[in-house]
Amino acid sequence: MSSLGKLRAxxxxxxxxxxSWRNAPAVRANMYTRHEISQAEHLSWWKQTSGCDDQKYxxxxxxxxxxxxxxxxxxxVLNANxxxxxxxxTDAPKGVGSRMEYLALEYxxxxxxxxxxxxxxxxxxxAVIKLHQKFGFRVEGVFHQHHSIDxxxxxxxxxxxxAPEWSSIRNNLYAKLSETQTGR
Length: 184
Known about the structure:
7-stranded mixed sheet
């Protein structure tokens, strides 16, 4: 997996970098929480989050450089499912989103041994919906006019992927990502 990079623990000295990526206008535009997050708010969130058993956050790193954040949330061990989200730095190289997604799926289904992974995406974020579908996610439902952004209600897409579905496509996706990474 090293050719795709790795997910690793977020160091305390990276919290400001994480916040700067999260506050980038292009990232905020696709999040439920769209205001600029203050340092105090971010540190308070991190203190609460890092003490929770049902959430894990990772730095995505490739060639020693951090390029994004992967969050695994709402971990339900009893029902073997969880939610996830990710965002990349504004200067991340092309293909980082795909590599982060692959590694997140490997972690959830391989290391955690969960049965289902799901996520929610704002309807206008069509690129991320298509990316998830490329990785086997299926649209499970649409929450119509579910979230208000700037006084306008937008739809939310709920997508899900099961462990057996991932297992059936993971090797082909790895081969494609490896080809892209090495430029073959």
